[in-house]
Amino acid sequence: MTHIKVINPNTALAMTASIGRCARAVASPSTVVTTVSPAMGPESIESHYDEALAVPGVLAEVAAGERAGVDGYVIACFGDPGLDAAREVAVGPVIGIAEAAMHAATLLGRSFSVVTTLSRTAGRAWDLAHRYGFAAACRGVHACDIPVLDLDRDPAARKTVTELCVTAVERDRCDAVVLGCAGMADFAAEVADETGVPVIDGVTAATKLVESLVALGLRTSKRGEYAPPPKKRYSGLLSDFTY
Ligand code: 2AL
């Protein structure tokens, strides 16, 4: 049995439940998927400030997962918050949803475009495309300007996102679409129907990638930068993080 812990770095529990449904729908019957939100952090992540303050909660969940014998982790927010730090803490693989989706998109086509939430999150999506080596394949990052929590609450959100994906494919002439928020995970099938191109939701892509790496017996490298962090004291609110 493989145990994958899917961490929604925000504290919106309805979104965590939806992320869990999407991840479980693709996981093998022999995989147990646990979905959590950290006990502390922002209710949604749509700024660099939100992202920075989401990271301690994510790391606490990875540390708890290590104590519980979790085999691998998905960081289910498109900014991939805390990904490198989580890999220092975890023995098994840790994959971010932007990372998973961009890798999958470039296996299925020569180019992709990202459809994200607020315009201010586009810079982070571009940063990650550069970091993962996919900037040349990324034709555009388009914002629907719907706040993360409204993706679920606003009945028009699904249609707005789908229409923006259709426009992105026409305008960018891209081969695939990457959904730029975990809150869009259950939009993928509909967007694929409307655009006619592969549409990658990072939650499902990352879940299957983690599952595959674990099945291959592969773990995070502990030789270099992803070795456990040096032991030292942390003060104040971070005193529990002393490694
Ligand atoms: C996200 C995401 O995936 N979760 C969240 O809170 N914010 N991404 C985004 N582009 O807004």
How would you describe what is shown here?
The model has no long low-confidence stretch (mean pLDDT 98). This protein is α/β, with parallel strands linked by helices and 243 residues long. The protein contains nine helices and eight strands. The radius of gyration is 17 Å and the shape is globular. Helix 4 crosses helix 9 and helix 7 packs across helix 8. The longest helix is centred in the N-terminal third of the chain and has 20 residues. The strands form two sheets. The protein has a four-stranded parallel β-sheet with strand order 2-1-3-4, with helices on both faces. 1-(2,5-dioxo-2,5-dihydro-1H-imidazol-4-yl)urea binds next to loops.
